Each structure stands twice: as C-alpha cells, then as structure tokens.
Here is the input.
Amino acid sequence: MIAKEELEKHIAAALARAGAPPGAPALVGPATRPEFGDYQANGVMAAAKQLQTNPRELAARVVEELDLSEMADSVEIAGPGFINIALKGDWLAARLDDMLADQRLGVPEVAAPQKVVIDYSHPNLAKEMHVGHLRSTIIGDAIARVLEFLGHEVVRHNHVGDWGTQFGMLIAYLDQQQDGDAMAELADLEVFYQSARKRFDADETFADLARECVVKLQGGDAQVRAVWQRFIDESLRHCEEVYERLGVTLTRADVRAESAYNDDLPVVIENLRAQGLLEESQGAQCVFLDDFKNKNGEITPVIVQKSDGGYLYATTDLSAVRYRAGQVGAKRVLYIVDARQKLHLRQVFAVAQAAGYAPDSVALEHYPFGTMLGEDHKPFKTRTGGTVKLMELLQEAEDRAFALVGEKNPDLSADERRQIARVVGIGSVKYADLSLNRETDYVFSWDNMLSLDGNTAPYLQYSYARVKSLFRRAEIDEESLAAAIIVAEKAEKVLAAKLLQFGEAVEVVAREGYPNLLCNYLYELADAFMKFYENCPVLRADEPVRSSRLQLARLTARTIGKGLGLLGIETVERM
Here is the structure.
C-alpha cells in the first residue's frame, strides 16, 4: 500500500472515532516543507465546517484517536487544523527495501483496470508534421504510458486528417506528375502542398479537376482512391519518421483516420433524426441543446450537416464516439486536443450523450493544451515567419545538445557524444513541454530547456548519470548490492520520504492527465538527492552506512529512470 493511502486509512478511521461526519475525507498529501514532517492531513477543516466546530479542537480529538506508533516519530497540529506527520526512519527504510526489491518500485496495478481510448497527435496528412503537432503527441503519449503502467488497457487513436476538399487538389496534382517527379516532390510534403496550392489558385481547369477528384474520392472511385492511398502512405511514412525520432509509441496500426468514419456519417444523421434531435436551420441539419443557451435564451446550434449535404468535423467526431464507446468498448475516452477546441468538444460530448452514443458509464474527457510561443510571445515560427517543421526542430535540439556535451565532457568519443546528444536533445524538447501545466501557453527557449540547472531534462538525466558514476567509481555491480537501507540523517530521511511518493505522483497523472505533476515530483526527488549527496558522504562512509547510501542512490536512479520513461524520455549513464 502506498504511504499516502495507508495514512489516509488511519486518519479516516480516527476522524470517524472523533465524531466527524461519515465519509469525511482524510486528504493526506506530502508536507509543503521538510521541517513540517513528511505528510500533512488537511481534511480536518472540512469536517469541522460540517460539524460547525473549531478545527484545532477537532484536530486534537483526531490526534488522540490516531495510533501511528509503528509509522510515525511525531504527529503535530499546526495552523488552523493541519496535522503534520513525521515518519520513522526504520519504517521508511523497510518500505524502501520493499520498493527496491520490486520491479514496479512499489506501485501496484489498479484493482479495476479500464479500457481507455486516447485520441492524440492527429496530424493533417496534407502537410508535414510541424511544431503545432508536438504538444498533443507528447502529452498524449505520456498519459498513455502512465495508464498502461498502472494496468489499464490503452487503445491509441491517431485521428489523422486524410479527408476533405484539399485532398482533391493534392490527388489531382499527384496524378498529373511523372512518377519520378512525384516521388521527388513528396519527399518534402510542404513543397508538394505549396506547389499543388499554387496550381489550384492559378489554373481554373486544374481547380475544376480537383473538385471532381473530391466527388470521386467520396464516391469510392477505385482509381482516385488508389492515388489517394499512395499519397496517404507517403504522408504516414513521414509521420512514422517523426514518431521514431521523438520516441513516441504511436504506430501505423494506431491510425484511425477521418476517412474511417465516412460510411457511418449518413447513419449518424439518420439516427439523430430518428431520435428527434435534428432540426433544420437555414437549410442545415442542427441539434439544439439547452446546455448551449445564452443569457438571452438563444441556443447555439451544433451543425451536423451543411445545407449542401456535406458533413462537418462534429459529424465525424460523433461517429468516432459511437465507435469508441460501442465497438471498442472504452470506459474512458481522452481527447488530447488544443484548448481552442473546447466549445466544439463540449458540443460533441453533449450531443453524443443526448443521443446515447456515450452512456453514463463512459467518460468523455477533454485534456486541453495551450500554444507553444516564440520569445516574441507569438505562435512559434521560423525567423522568416514560416511554420517550423517538427523534424527540423528535433535536429536542431540534437545539434545544440551535441555542442553542449562537447563543452562539458570533451573526452568522450564523437559517437558517444552523438548518442548522449540524441537522448538529451529530444528529452529536453519533450520535458520542457511536459513540465508545464498543459493548459497554459509557454515560451519556447533553447537556453532554458538545455540548462543543467532547474527543472529540466538535462538536470534529471545528470542526476541519473551521477548515480551511475558512483557505482563505476566504487567498482561495484549495483545489481549485486544486497545491503539493507538505513535512514538516520535528515537528508536521508527527506530523500526516503520523497522516494515513497513516486506512486502517488503516477496515480494523479493517470487520474487527472497532468504530466507536469510527475515532472515536478521527479525534480523534487532529484533536488532531494543532490542535497543528500552533498550532506551525506557515500563512498567515504564506513560500512554498513556506505552500502546503505549506495542503495539509496541506486533506488533514486531507478525511480528517476522509471519516471522519465513514463514521460517517454530516455536516460544515459554518463554526461
């Protein structure tokens, strides 16, 4: 059992014995500062408010009823009614020994695993992936990894844009190229798209041909579909190269494109009509729900079919909900989608629930994210104002990291520096994003993300590498070390308590979808380790303290490595 859960169990029982209302929450969390203890119980004040009694008086009764003699050195009341708990060194040590012996680092799998669909990345196949696709891709991938680690069945859905009017233009242009020319242009999707667009805007005959291709594509014309498929395959190949470079877990099998729902769109319309949910407005088919009524009583409609019979993103998204909740059998569907789509997804979720596509047993959850900004606080662009290709951004990250590694450790071979630069460069780009609240915009800064100080990937990767260097200097195979852990010094105690909070950090990411909470934990752990390293000699200590501290260092590295791995970030053994 995770320490937080064990404490909550004891405190909840003490709250009940002290006369708190049934089910009063214990609300235990890590103490805000080490001098306050290791954990803090914050539920007393809420219970006191319900009982209309003094919080400190209720806290005193709870402490009287609380028996933590096996776990805690001290239990103290602080402030308006907090309960601070300092855990015993022996208790911490025993838990750390268990954690070290467990491949899962003491984090249990969930008792009731769920099938979870995660909709993320979703590039538009008309263009090469750019920085606008970065946040959805890496946030979604981190959440997927965390949920799988806890035992949930994760179904990745890469809802790529492969349908619509622009594809008629691209198909017509591809079809008119000689094979050699076509493949040469497709090597750079941006150039291909721009060439097709230029032709479309300048040549009315070509534009008419492109529109005919759209009709044929949507009608299932075999020849047009074959050209379209050729384009899609080449586009997906570009995406797969980016995913491999980024180290994300998406594969071709995870693609669930817009076109996959095409045949179901008229079925959705007829189903909504049969349920009496459709109303015609200015020729379009709409759903009017009271959820979207303004202060004047006017309802913003959800348009599901245009007056010309065409479908919209809302129609496709409703079909996707039907598929995910129905055929896939998901109990949670997570949408890692730009914050600007908040209203759109609220409307889709509301219609899906009204139509019964997502019953009450299925949770539809939008995990919005903000925009990546340049240092001018405007959407991130190249110096010339163009879109930043994702592959070029990643290459620059590796190049900058290569130069940094060369400065810090010039004795390494070029091959080793390149390997370290790949891990550090890609990790820095990912961590700089994941370490911030996903709902906020953030300013992209090479200097900040590649810094060896502060809450960055290089700082955590360096902490991991420092432990590995300890074992190299000690000439000890860490896997052969079998010493018990001793927790006596203050810095050891702070590090021990922080190590035991790993499972709590993982669980909150799975529940709430904020990877930055795991990043914050890892940074605090690395900081606690650095203070331990500075204040508690390791290799110069006498036995059994020396081996105990090596074990503490080893467990720290394993925890940092596992935590970064759940974020999709690699580690290196030297930097």
Q: What stands out?
A: The first helix runs from residue 3 to 17. Residues 3-87 form a domain with the Gyrase A; domain 2 fold (CATH 3.30.1360.70). The chain has a mean pLDDT of 91.
